[in-house]
Design brief:
16% strand; disordered C terminus; 2 domains; alpha/beta; 12 helices; Rossmann fold
Length: 407
Amino acid sequence: MHTLKKRRIEQHFCTVDKRKTEARVKTGFADKAKALGSSEQRDLVRSLSTIKMDVSSRLKRLERVVDGHHAADGSDFDYELSAAYLLKATTFRPEIGVICGSGLSGLSACIEESITVNYADIPGFPQATVPGHFGELVFGTIGGIQVVCMRGRFHYYEGNSMSTVVLPVRVMRLMGVKLLIVTNAAGGLNPDYKVGDIAIIQDHFGGPVIAGNHPLRGLNNDSMGPRFPSVSDAYDEKLQDIALRVSEKLNLTPIMRPNATYCFVAGPSYESRAECRFLRQIGGDSVGMSTVPEIIAAKHAGMKILCLSLITNKVVVDKSDAVAASHEEVLEAVKTSGKHVESIVKAFITKENLAAYLEALPKVSYTPRPKKAAASSSTSGLFTGAAAVTAAALLAVGAFALFAKKK
């Protein structure tokens, strides 16, 4: 009874706050509108519409926090929710996950008995927005082994949180994936690299990560992995050796570049000449705008990792370099050389190469995080107050937009 009275009191004061806020905002907008011309009014309405969309998004996020469906690590999405849906939507229980880099979605053509699930159909799953990245998961088999192929990854430069960038990796882990194959289209830092070469990554440098934009930042999910995982051993040497043997059988040895170091930059702009010189001097061989966050999340979750970089352009290090990098150049190079990455992945995933290796790995063991049965009274009050102020602001935006149209 005491709790019920408390909530009613909170609702009463929030209603009063809402009305006061609404009145103040309407008055302020009306005064402002009188001093503006019609074109300025339209600009203001556009700005307010943008604010309205942002506020609505934040309000939905608050609702997810209160309902207990919000990821504990601060992500806008929920990998447990996504995994639970996929485990019901398909009978496949993949042991291998494949992440396709820009323009490399053709890797999914290697999959037999395939079924496709669009990102838009998966609860709690984000959407891909970059050209060359489809928005779908493809389940099936390669070489008799069940796999899931991610056609369209999420980048930090798209405005995603790092938690969102790595969410698909965690979804794969909850579905049973033990081995993750990560591919990317990258610029060649190493002066010996040529367009079309394939680098086998054995280490990385993560600029944004060491600057604080880390995929494991925030509350740790102990059931997923340890608080302080090592990444010095993230790239499995046995898998690198298998990839080299496979490429030799395919007569691709001349274009293979083993023992490479990949450098992660935030993007979306390509690197300056000075940045490329710096990355080359610290031992970087290839550079791109993805991969490292996913590698860290996979290592944290206990997955084994193979990473391949398709060199799609040579970086610009001085003024004499004629052509600046472009995404069109990257996609064009992938059309020419992407088939080699596809053939390596297909020949790599066979029972002969991996059956014993996968069998020796421990099965995925995961305890779902408890959902909040109900919000605490303090959280409820905070949420209700935020909702009231938000609602008032939205009403005021609508009122002003109508006022501006009449003018």
